[in-house]
Amino acid sequence: MENSTNVKKEDLLAPTSLINLVLSWSLRDVLNKDLYKNQVKKIPKTFSSVTDYKKSFVPALIEETHADLFSNITAVSQAPTWEIDSVVISKDFELPKDLFYEITLVENDEDSGDSESDEDTEKDEEEKNEPQKGDVIALNDVRPKCIEDLNRPKRFYLIAYVLGPRNTSTDTISILASKPIWTDQNVHKYENKKQPLFAVYLTNLITNVRIWGALNPPEGGNTNIIERVLHANSPDDENCMACFSEGKNSPAPSCILNTISSYNLNDSQEAAVLSCIGMKDCNHQNPVKMIWGPPGTGKTKTVGVLLHALLKMKCRTLTCAPTNIAVLEVTKRLLSLAKYSLGYDTYGLGDIVLFGNGKRMKIYDRKKRRKFAYHKDLRDVFLDCRADALKECFALKSGWRNGLESMISLLDDPKWQYEIYLEKREEEKREEEKRREERREEEKRKEEKRKKKTRKEKKKRKEENNKGVDELKKDDDYPLTFEEFIKETFFSIHKQLKFCMVNLYTHLPTSLLPLDVVKKMMEALNLLQFLETLLRGGRVLNYFQDTGSSVDCLAELSMAEECLHVLRYLQLSLTSSVPDLGNCSITNFCLKNACLVFCTASSSAKLHRTEGSMEFLVIDEAAQLKECESAIPLQLSGLRHAILIGDERQLPALVKSEISDKAEFRRSLFERLVILGHQKHLLNVQYRMHPSISLFPNREFYGKKISDAPNVRGRDYEKRFLQGNMYSSYSFISIAHGKEEFGLGYSPKNMVEAAVVSEIVANLFKQFLVTKKKVSIGVISPYKAQVSAIEERVRKYSKSNSGFTVNVRSVDGFQGGEDDVIIISTVRCNGSGRVGFLSNRQRANVALTRARYCLWILGSAVTLLQSGSVWKKLVLDAKERGCFYDANEDKSLAGAITAALVEFEQLDILLRNDSILFREARWKVYFDNNFKISISRIRNAEICSAVLSLLAKLTSGWRQPHERRNLIVHNGTSSKFLEVYKVDRQLNLVWTVDILKEYSHHIQVMKVWDVVRLSDIQKLAKQLDVVLGSYTADKMHRCKHRCLEGSLVVPMRWPMESTSRPEHDSVWYLSRPLSSLSLRDKPETSAATSR
Questions:
Q1: What is d(CA 897, CA 359) in angstroms, rounded to the nearest whole number?
Q2: Cα separation of 205 and 68, whole Å?
Q3: Residue 791: exposure state from Cβ atoms within 10 A (0-12, 13-18, ≥19)
Q4: Bias regions of kind Basic and acidic residues — which residues (predicted)?
Q5: What is the DSSP string of 679-691?
Q6: Among the four 102, 328, 397, 902, which has the fewest Cβ within 10 Å?
Q7: Taking a C-beta distance cutoff of 8 angstroms, is the pair 212, 254 a contact?
Q8: Buried b or exposed e, range 308-339, using 16+ CB within 10 angstroms
Q9: Alpha carbon separation from 309 to 287, 305, 312 (Å, rounded)
């Protein structure tokens, strides 16, 4: 695009300008979340007039703008900040409101290379190197670390609106300030010498300003389509009776029908396309058609075929989408179809143009002349690339006109061209000799001023001068020979012509460049290429030397004459058909003459300022576009028909303000028309998901209206990436021991689920290394904090090998995407069933419909079942279908869960009797508070794991051999019961057998007292003397009973009315020697013994 920062002052300073409103807010206003609460009313579903329609969106738009600024300003410490070098009052500056300034930034060292690179990352794209058009910046004397830094005594809250990008010629950025930057009216310029000044990014208003412009347009705008969607309409008939009676409702031309049928669309797709192109000559039906495209139903293919048909019918069509990603996707689809049908190289692509921010789209950074490697296939239709290429083609000295004239002259009279060359050389030689003489005179004058210099320096300088003169003489004394001249000149002009001709037939619209002319261009290029090949081989020189008359040269002479004839034809044809673009706006020319134009809905505001009109508007992902934003393209000049493609049962547009959200500000035109009963064409066959994956969403969200295509029902779609039923095509994997906590900005995360995801991805990667079969994995979570936590754990796998990719994104970020395997982390894990916005049905629909072959859902079944949301239905459905699994059933997942609980100090979960640690336990275990305190203080995860591993073994019935146990030298009561097991060189686990009353029985249980150093055991034993000394003799005897099952010790049970030793009394028991009562006695051979 042209580098311009000119903005009409009257547009900015209108009383109702959104920009002025934002600049009028004080910091207190910005931080007042309820500033517009009472002014925002719910947007109705029907409207009485166009004026009523537009006014209904304005309060919510202002509130959303306010909420966005509030959200960013609360995180100002992390905002991009630039140091300002100077501030100058603009020529349009006028107090009190026209506070226009030009700022210059302090230069930062950055790579300005123009080479093509594959190394660009999302982070690079998001980095803001300088303020952009539409940015709101705060001007501050410090880099802010908190909000209060924006409102300091010497520099009260001052913000500015960036009017345009940096002017490359003056290196300045134009801004409009909220108040004077300095109070002294005699000062016209600020320079950063003593007091620094910073520009701090707060938000970007460009889209909201464009929406504001669409809601407050100048008089005379096109509101024809808006008038037809103000309220409910009667259902459309497929055939307009008025057109039918007038004979206008004729079927599409046979060539168009053949094109459509060649793409093997299903019945629903073909019907949708035919219905839309049937609107072309009708003015009676509702001008809005809707195509309902549920997940995987080939929506993008259908849109591509529709656009290709409109291209062949020469219908000027604008195709919009809410985001750059969506625009790029639909453009690629159309190009893949269009290029397949192109008959003459890239001729015809000039009818297609894509425009937008090339850097964000990762196509072309015009400022740095840098081509990105991501979307090479889109460069031929990208406006900035096209404008730069055509600019070279129409350049005075290097363009197509100069190239044709030069080549014709060379072929027509090569000797004369050589004589001209020699004359120029002589003239240049004379000029150079004159310049050398002037330099010698200058050197003599300088020599006179350098009398103090040494002779050595003079001699050296003289040698250098003589050397330079000798080199010039050598160069001048040897002009090109005739043969060298012919070759070099031909090769150079041929290169120039090839560049120009290819770019002309690629980038000019077919309406200005007839096919016959293009055929001649290609013929000329073929002839020139053949002549160059012969020239490089030393042939064809006879033609140029006019000495060849042998039969061998006749064919070559004839080819040169033919090439000359074709070039002369092109010179006349191109001059008459191709306009001179050297002195006009090439970008406006391209937009005006293109048949298909692609951009975001927001960027379509540019088209309101260009000549020409559109006939059709196609909005892809229309259900994600706020209705007020769709008003930008809906009011384009000449627009007669609009086609909305989307799915209102997937995610709508994002809205930051809860107040605006309650007012239905996020609602799309697509959704509102659905609510009003507008007819929509359903695409009813899905091609993406394995039937076991599509089953639940089809029933829950689409009323079983979607059928599975043959390709997903075939054997090829039965893929297993990991062994085990848990990893079949569809499964719910319950993680009972997760724990939700809050991370980034109150966003919940569940580190146990993150660990399980990481373990699954690691297992998939191991399998990939064995099979070498390509697999793409998508990990989805509703929450940013969880996305960040998982990304950190799986980043190493996504970059390890081509063929194994891992994408971790939020649900919103995955809309429109798909992968072979999808893992969903639902995060929420609590006893009350709170699931937050996870309960949103649209969000659930998107998450559940991204997988091709396998969908594995991770979550707390208990929490989801209590939520009363769609996730409760999903868990019940999984259980009913036999697709419900416990993560603990998989050994590697159980290990990952345990490790995560230890790593993140969630030991309280592990120490419960129902935890995975004790899933094979024979003994119930109870922990003293001292143990819980001690283990929580252990920071070494390996030691913690060793303690827990020892506990798991003990509860399963394992016991150390007698000779490996730690003996206690202590005469107190506790010495009879204490067991001490070594954890490592320093720590020991101290426990006893205890008796618990359960229902009508006494049962043996483990009581874990502490984990302590060996030197602290005596102290602990003395403390336990008091506790254990209070036991009755019967309880002591029960504690000392030992029951074996093979090599394992298992707990014993007694009915409450029985005694532990009917044949002996307590006095006898207590009178036995301490050694005989010791728990360290070797067990007897009987199954149940007294220890």
A1: 42
A2: 9
A3: middle
A4: 429-446
A5: --EE--EE-SS-H
A6: 397
A7: no
A8: bbbbbbebbbbbbbbbbbbbbbbbbbbbebbe
A9: 18, 6, 5
The alpha carbon dihedral of 135, 139, 144, 147 has a sign of: negative
Q: What local confidence, expressed as pLDDT, does residue 1 receive?
A: 42
Task: Note whether 125 and 192 are within 8 A (CB).
Answer: no
Examine residue 509 and say whether the peptide bond preceding it is cis (omega within 30 degrees of 0): no
Where do the H-state alpha helices sit in 799-917? 811-814, 841-848, 861-866, 870-880, 891-903, 907-910
Residues 6+ apart with CB under 8 A from 665: 43, 57, 60, 61, 63, 64, 626, 628, 655, 657
Q: 1038-1061: buried (b, 16+ CB within 10 Å) or exposed (e) per residue?
A: bbbbbbbeeeebbbbebeeeeebb
Q: What is the pLDDT of residues 391-450, one digit of tens each?
A: 999 998 889 999 999 999 998 888 899 899 899 888 888 888 888 888 888 887 777 777
CB 1003 within 8 A of CB 1052: yes
CA distances in angstroms from 482 to 425, 527, 534, 535, 539, listed in the order given: 13, 22, 16, 13, 14
**How far apart are the C-alpha atoms of 1080 and 308, rounded to whole Å?**
87
Residue position matching structure tokens 């952009």: 132
Residue type at 40 in one-letter notation: V
Question: What is the C-alpha separation between 418 and 423, in angstroms, rounded?
Answer: 9
> In 76-131, which ranges are continuous DSSP H helix?
122-126
Number of residues assigned to the chain: 1091
Query: Residue for token digits 């789209």?
Result: 361
- What are the helix (H) ranges across 596-742? 627-634, 658-662, 669-675, 691-702, 710-713
- Residue-level pLDDT at 1074: 31
* Statement: residue 274 has pLDDT above 50: yes
For the stretch 100-133, pLDDT in tens is 999 999 886 544 444 444 434 344 444 468 899 9
Query: CB-based contacts of 936: which residues, under 8 Å, 6+ apart?
Result: 905, 907
β-pairing, 730-734 vs 851-859, is parallel
